[in-house]
Specification:
The complex is a heterodimer. Among the domains of chain A are: about 100 residues, Leucine-rich Repeat Variant; about 100 residues, no CATH class; about 190 residues, Serine Threonine Protein Phosphatase 5, Tetratricopeptide repeat; about 110 residues, Gamma-adaptin ear (GAE) domain (Immunoglobulin-like, Sandwich). The longest helix of chain A has 20 residues. By secondary structure, chain A is an alpha+beta fold. Chain A starts with 9 loop residues before the first helix and ends in a 7-residue tail after the last strand. Chain A contains 36 helices and ten strands. The radius of gyration of chain A is 38 Å and the shape is elongated. In chain A, about 55% of the residues lie in helices and about 10% in strands. In chain A, the strands form three sheets. Chain A has a five-stranded antiparallel beta sheet, with no helix packed on it. In chain A, α6 packs parallel to α9. By secondary structure, chain B is of the alpha+beta class. Chain B has one domain: Beta-Lactamase, CATH 3.30.450. Chain B is about 50% helix and about 25% strand. The relative contact order of chain B is 0.16. The chains are: A alpha+beta, B alpha+beta. At the A-B interface, α2, α4, α6, α9 and α11 of A face β3, α2, β7 and α5 of B.
């Protein structure tokens, strides 16, 4: 075996002499021949010498018998057809008294069962005798011949159990027959020595693989749980490996594994990396809804100290787990913040986009997010690019919340209890400090290009969030018009132009990003809804002139001149790109205009006109509705008209109240295209149901599909300068009616309608002929102060809804 | 398929005994051995004795300055193999009466015989020490007579 390969010529010549030796009456010589054959046999030799081996298999000498048996194993491996020939010889093997022959005999049976399905079937009949054999082994007292540390021939025991495992796999009857003996071994084997554990381990593996009853499986898993508590690392290793394969195989066993969760988590502190890796995979596969808080907390703790090679894997898995099982939005945000602050360098691009998305979606935690991230990048000199990028994005978006939001929270650790060393609150940074931090990010040569791009985008956005610093930001940005980095150069030039030439629209351009649609699925449905509504509203056909206008605008902004919102949306979806924003805004404007079916009047090709046309979209619309039919005027004119929203309703007597969005500022309205309500609003009847303390509640009632059902959409906006929180809208109806309220979209409103509005749907069922009236109860807190509750009856629902 | 090889290596990384139960040509053996030995020697006391390596398992056990390394298939019982290594050591100890590296170096043939009696074709054959040693004692007698 050491030097001889099957292919060598010598092989052929050996066959004959082996044959002679095997026929030699001296058992030693025959034994040597068997050993040699067992080591070097090729398929040809196997065929030639099978008869001799079979003969020796029946010999009376155990020394020859055991060698012949293993030789047979080799032969059938080389030439599976020979299995048939050895079947008769196997019958006597199990009645043998010599343990070595039994051991090799069981081995032969195992090999045959695996090679040949017919054998597997017929061997199942042997299960009772195997069980008897196993029972004798375990119950008989001390036998000096084969005793190892008080266990009677553990090697034979494990070998038999392995055979049982093969026989019991996917077979109820055989499994049933071996249940008792396995349970007996699992309970009685002493686990103080390695041998005992070896047998137990084999039994546990067997139980997992056969069709064992539930109780037995739980017993097996509990045994593994006991293994985990042992000081011996080898045993913990096998226990974790087996648990992992059990959990991954699925089924009802994972319940029992959950019970040993804390022990498994403890294994994360193991000095051996192989054990840690297994424990880690096991932890991730154990996470579910009920334990997500505790387990993810533990894993986050571990993330601090984890080996480098684990971190990227952990970050991905943690993000998935947090997304899947997050018990509350706050927890989710805190968890992702924790992930990115502790392992920012290991977050992939995909993960970064996800994290930003999570933060953006949960508007009530924007402030917290930006505070935590700002603190993370300022307290430690971190080189973690993903962290810097996420922080830049958040500072850009929510810079005002950072500066005006009060002291920075003490620690990011709200998820787990252990406190970090940098406890204590830090006063909020000044606007100057924030800009300084971002500027340093651009300047730092060790930062990646991507980080610098994030930072410059954040800076330009800050110019509207912190208007007092706009001049300084302009100066910083204009520095990079000569940057060697192409992207920086382009951005810098664009933004400087925005400052210099289009300063008037800059605030609108740099409005807060709408929450991107993260799931492709939602995007599709929104599109469908839009499309259907469009058709319902009378098959709008776009006027060519209008199309031209929208197209030009998009051209101008350097993107494909597509009219189709469906095509625009994905481009803007991931969007941190400012131009993306503009596209985003551009498309719905076009659509809005299309819906109006108004042939465009006289807007011509100049830049000012185009921008004016776009931004003045809603204004134009309104004007057109009034059949004024005038063309769009100069940019200033239109913007003035648009941004000075409140003056408009006066010009529109047929609508009691204009929809709130257009007042919020040009792009904000345009950007909100994702929400289908906009199309409806222009046509639907609406009125203000409540107004006070800056909170304005607009009703958009409509009839439901069934007669006597109504659907009232309630949109709350904030026109005051203070934030409104804990906004709660309740609707009561007379006893004859029924009302069902959907959950509101949020409970907080940013000043001046800067953030998203709160929308809530109420479904009212009223008996036919009864006039719709409701009792409205609104509660809110102004600037975090005490909660105010107001009640008001609303009965002025229009007849023609 | 059971065991793949049995290695006996000293602390300096020199192979003292090597038995293979699957044919490998000498060159791959040497390169593989070097890598495996390096991996095993790098393990500390605090780490477990099992490793996954190129699709099979390594199980090793250290006795003073000697490392016993077994390569086994993934479905093998690691703990049992660990126990088997101990059994090999006990058997050698019984035969050489206090085995040390030099005993094995100068009686390499006997060490191989012992292993051959215990493992054949990659499977464990015999685990009774007396029965393992018996045929080797016979050979010893023959040697004495002939010399």
């Amino acid at each position: 075996m050491l030097l001889l390969d099957e292919g060598k010529e010598l092989h052929l010549m050996v066959t004959n002499s082996l044959k002679q030796d095997m026929n030699n009456p001296n058992p030693n010589i025959a034994g040597f021949a068997l050993c040699t054959l067992g080591a070097i046999a090729s398929a040809e030799m196997a065929r030639d010498l099978a008869d001799e081996v079979e003969k020796l298999l029946r010999s009376s000498s155990p020394a020859l018998k055991k060698k012949a048996t293993l030789c047979a194993v080799r032969l059938i491996r080389k030439e599976p057809e020979l299995v048939e020939q050895f079947i008769p010889a196997t019958r006597s093997l199990l009645s043998e008294r010599n343990h070595a022959v039994l051991l090799t005999g069981v081995m032969l049976l195992r090999e045959m069962a695996q090679l040949n399905a017919g054998c597997l079937e017929s061997f199942r009949r042997m299960v009772p005798s195997l069980v008897r054999l196993l029972k004798t082994l375990t119950s008989s007292g001390y036998s000096p011949e084969y005793d190892v540390h008080g266990i009677n021939d553990p090697f034979l025991q494990t070998s038999i159990v392995r055979l049982l495992q093969i026989l019991g796999h996917n077979n109820d009857e055989a499994s049933e027959a071996m249940n008792d003996v396995l349970a007996e071994i699992a309970t009685n084997t002493q686990t103080t020595t390695n041998v005992g554990n070896a047998v137990l381990y084999e039994v546990v593996k067997c139980i997992m693989n056969i069709e064992a009853e539930g109780g037995l499986r739980v017993l097996a898993i509990n045994n593994l749980g006991k293994f985990l508590l042992k000081p011996d690392r080898n045993i913990r290793y096998v226990a974790l490996t087996t648990l992992l394969s059990t959990v991954q195989a699925g089924g009802n066993a994972s319940e029992a594994v959950q019970r040993h969760r804390s022990t498994i988590v403890d294994c994360l502190r193991e000095p051996d990396v192989t054990i840690r890796r297994r424990a880690l995979s096991l932890c991730f596969s154990l996470i579910n809804k009920s334990n997500v808080r505790g387990l993810v907390g533990e894993l986050l703790d571990f993330l601090h100290v984890a080996d480098r090679e684990f971190k990227a894997y952990m970050v991905t898995e943690l993000l998935i787990a947090a997304d899947k099982y997050a018990p509350s939005p706050k927890w989710h945000v805190d968890t992702v913040l924790e992930i990115i602050t502790t392992a920012g360098g290991y977050v992939q691009e995909q993960g970064l986009a996800e994290i930003i998305q999570i933060i953006a979606e949960r508007s009530e935690f924007n402030q917290r997010a930006v505070q935590v991230l700002f603190r993370a990048i300022t307290t430690a000199n971190t080189g973690a690019q993903s962290l810097l990028q996420a922080a830049s994005w958040c500072i850009g978006e929510f810079g005002d919340l950072l500066v005006n939001g009060g002291p920075l929270p003490a620690s990011t650790r709200t998820v787990t209890s252990s406190a970090r060393d940098d406890a204590g609150e830090v006063p909020a940074p000044t606007a100057g400090e924030v800009i300084e931090v971002l500027h340093r990010l651009i300047q730092d040569p060790t930062n990646s290009a991507g980080t610098r791009h994030y930072a410059i985008n954040a800076l330009v956005k800050l110019s509207t969030r912190l208007p007092n610093e706009a001049e300084r930001i302009r100066n910083i940005i204009s520095l990079y018009r000569r940057s060697i980095d192409e992207e920086m150069q382009q951005r810098s030039a664009e933004y400087t132009t925005l400052f210099d030439t289009f300063n008037a629209i800059r605030p609108a351009v740099l409005e807060r990003m709408p929450v991107a649609q993260s799931k492709a699925r939602t995007v599709v449905t929104t599109d469908l809804e839009n499309h259907q509504q469009q058709q319902q509203q009378g098959g709008a056909i776009a006027a060519p002139a209008q199309q031209q206008q929208g197209g030009d605008l998009l051209d101008l902004l350097g993107d494909e001149p597509s009219q189709q919102q469906q095509q625009q949306q994905p481009a803007a979806g991931g969007g941190v790109d400012l131009l993306g924003d503009l596209d985003f805004g551009g498309a719905p404007a076009t659509q809005q205009q299309q819906q109006q079916q108004q042939a465009s009047s006289s807007s011509s090709g100049g830049l000012d006109d185009l921008l004016g046309g776009l931004l003045g979209g809603p204004t134009q619309q309104q004007q057109q509705q009034q059949q004024q039919g005038t063309g769009s005027g100069g940019l200033d004119d239109l913007l003035g008209g648009l941004l000075g929203g409140p003056s408009q309703p006066a010009a529109q007597p047929q609508q009691p109240q204009q929809p709130p969005q257009p007042q919020a500022g040009g792009l904000d309205f345009l950007m909100d295209m994702g929400a289908p309500q906009q199309q409806q609003q222009s046509a639907a009847v609406s009125f203000v149901a409540f107004e006070g303390d800056g909170l304005k509640l607009t009703f958009f009632p409509s009839r439901g599909a069934q007669p006597g059902t109504y659907e009232i959409k309630m949109v709350a906006t904030n026109t005051s300068a203070t934030q409104l929180s804990q906004v709660n809208i309740q609707v009561a109806v007379p006893k004859t009616c029924q009302v069902r309220l959907n959950a509101p979209s949020s409970t907080a409103l940013e000043p001046f309608g800067a953030g998203p509005d709160i929308t809530q749907l109420a479904h009212v069922t009223a008996p036919q002929g009864e006039k719709l009236r409701v009792l409205l109860r609104v509660s809110y807190s102004v600037g975090g102060g005490p909660v105010t509750v107001k009640q008001q009856a609303v009965s002025n629902f229009p007849e023609n809804m | 398929m059971g065991l793949r090889f049995f290695l006996l290596v000293n602390k300096q990384g020199q192979t003292r005994v090597a038995q293979y139960y699957q044919y490998r040509d000498v060159e791959t053996r040497v390169t593989n051995e070097a890598e495996i030995i390096r991996k095993c020697l790098a393990r500390t006391e605090k780490q477990c004795s099992f490793m996954e390596y190129r699709g099979f398992k390594l199980i090793f056990r250290r006795y003073a300055s000697l490392y016993f390394i077994v390569g086994a298939d993934n479905d093998e019982n690691e703990l049992a193999i660990l126990e088997f290594i101990h059994m090999v050591v006990e058997t050698m100890d019984q035969y050489f009466e206090g085995v040390c590296e030099l005993d094995i170096m100068f009686n390499i043939d006997k060490a191989h015989f012992i292993l051959d009696e215990m493992i054949a074709n990659g499977e464990i054959v015999e685990t009774n020490k007396t029965r393992i040693i018996a045929p080797i004692r016979v050979i010893d007698k023959v040697d004495k007579l002939s010399s």
